[in-house]
Structures are given as C-alpha cells and as structure tokens.
C-alpha cells in the first residue's frame, strides 16, 4: 500500500506553548494527521487535551517554563518516558514586548530573547541529541514571524529574536540534515491571537494592516496547522533550513 506522505500516524510531536493560539491549533492539526502530542505549557491545558483526545490520539501534558534551562531535559525525558520516543518538535512558545526603542528596558530585551531564541536553541539541541540516540529521522519546526524578514516598530527584542530564529534555523539545518533531522520554520503573518491583541485593539493600526493583506483578512490559528503538518511529514523530507510564510500574501506586497 502507498503511504500518504502527510500521514503522521505513529509519530510523537512535542509542541511548546500548546495551551492557546497557534500552538493549540498546531497540536490539534498534528493529531488530526495521526501524531500523539506532548503539549508543553506553563498552565493547565484542558481545552487542548480535549481537542487532541477528540481526534483519537493521545495527549501528554508537561507543565514547564521553557525559559528555564532546567526545563529542557524534563521536557525531552518526560516525552520519551511517556511515548518511548519523539519525532517532531514545534518550537512555538514565544512572547512579545512593545515599547519605543529609545525607552526599551534590559528586562524586556532579556525576557524575550531567553524564551524566543535561547530556549528554542537548547530545546532543539536536546531534541536532536535524542533523535541521534534513537537512530530515527526528526522534524523541527520553528515559529518565526514577519519580523524575521522586516524590522517592525516598537518591538526591538522581538525583531531581534525572530530574525535570529531564521539564521539559527538555517544553521541547525546545515548541521543536522546529515542526521536525518529537517529544521524549518513557519512565519505567520498577522494572526488573531493573544500575541496580537494590543495591535487589534488599536483600530487604526488594525485597519492599516488589513489593507495591506492581499487575502483581505487577518489569519486564524487554523491557517497554521496544515503548513505544520506538511513540515512535520515525509512530504517535506527534502526541505531544509527554509522559513515558509503563512501570511495571506503580506510579504508578496
Ligand atoms: P499566544 O497566544 O500569546 O501564545 C504564546 C504561547 O507561548 C502561549 O501558550 C504561552 O503560554 C507560551 N509561552 C510563552 N512563554 C512561555 C514560557 N516561558 N514557557 C512556556 N510557554 C510559554 O500567541 P500566538 O500568536 O499563538 O504565538 C505563538 C507563536 O507564534 C509565538 O512564537 C509568536 O511569536 C508567533 N507569532 C505569532 C503571530 C501572530 O500574529 N499571532 C505572528 C507571528 C509569529 P502562556 O499562555 O502561559 O503565556
């Protein structure tokens, strides 16, 4: 029988920041494609658990703050203890801080960089080491941003972290492709989640952004789950170090 290249049956996917927004949607999308899910979050995630369970796949919750280096091993070890192996890592957890560059604080710099790029690297490193021990193939998906490509306004540490994420995605892809680990990213456009709540509350800015999106609407969390399935699957086996924009055409303007 010919296997559907998008089928994730028998795979185990770790998704960080899975309690809400894009993370929850990707966890459910990967489960719909057949994967069991390890959801990593700072708080209880009953809604995600219910949605994943409704697909018939298994869900394991790990409560962890990814900014703490001590969390890294517990996430990987906890996943392997529960499911015996891991196959997919979605580095989705991320934060944003908004302020004028002239007034931007060291704390707002450090907190964003710690979560958006430092923890992403060390979790990816621990994941890659486990894949090599397993002797299997792996897929890492890093959640980037339009600000991996553009400068943005009033979000200097976010832009720095998401631009670094693009370079790091390529760097990790270069070193780990030989081990059968594909490292890629998804750059969401403007999506209606907590991350963009402040932007959407500013009516003028909301409209300005909307006017520039060729698709004529802001994105939804569900817009990300198909691309995540693709980059987690055999269908993308020869794609390495690439950031896929899911932006309704924003970057094409
Ligand atoms: P969101 O609803 O704010 O989701 C962020 C997730 O990250 C939440 O689950 C959050 O948990 C988790 N998180 C933050 N810090 C964490 C930590 N230290 N440890 C564990 N989990 C942590 O916003 P979202 O839009 O879905 O964001 C998901 C990703 O997409 C982020 O990387 C964001 O930068 C990126 N993104 C979003 C957009 C957009 O338009 N929405 C565009 C480009 C990129 P809590 O609920 O506990 O805070």
TrEMBL record:
Entries under InterPro entries matching the protein: 2-deoxy-D-gluc_3_DH, NAD(P)-bd_dom_sf, Sc_DH/Rdtase_CS, SDR_fam
Alphabetized Pfam families for the sequence: adh_short_C2
Entry GO MF terms: 2-dehydro-3-deoxy-D-gluconate 5-dehydrogenase activity; 2-deoxy-D-gluconate 3-dehydrogenase activity; NAD binding
Catalytic activity: 2-dehydro-3-deoxy-D-gluconate + NAD(+) = 3-deoxy-D-glycero-2,5-hexodiulosonate + NADH + H(+)
The protein's Enzyme Commission number: 1.1.1.127
Entries under SUPFAM superfamilies matching the protein: NAD(P)-binding Rossmann-fold domains
EC top class, as a word: oxidoreductase
Keyword field contains Hydrolase: no
Keywords (A to Z) from UniProt: NAD, Oxidoreductase
UniProt superkingdom: Bacteria
Family membership noted in the UniProt record: Belongs to the short-chain dehydrogenases/reductases (SDR) family.
PANTHER family: 2-DEHYDRO-3-DEOXY-D-GLUCONATE 5-DEHYDROGENASE, SHORT-CHAIN DEHYDROGENASES/REDUCTASES FAMILY MEMBER
Name the UniProt record assigns to this protein: 2-dehydro-3-deoxy-D-gluconate 5-dehydrogenase
Native species: Gynuella sunshinyii YC6258
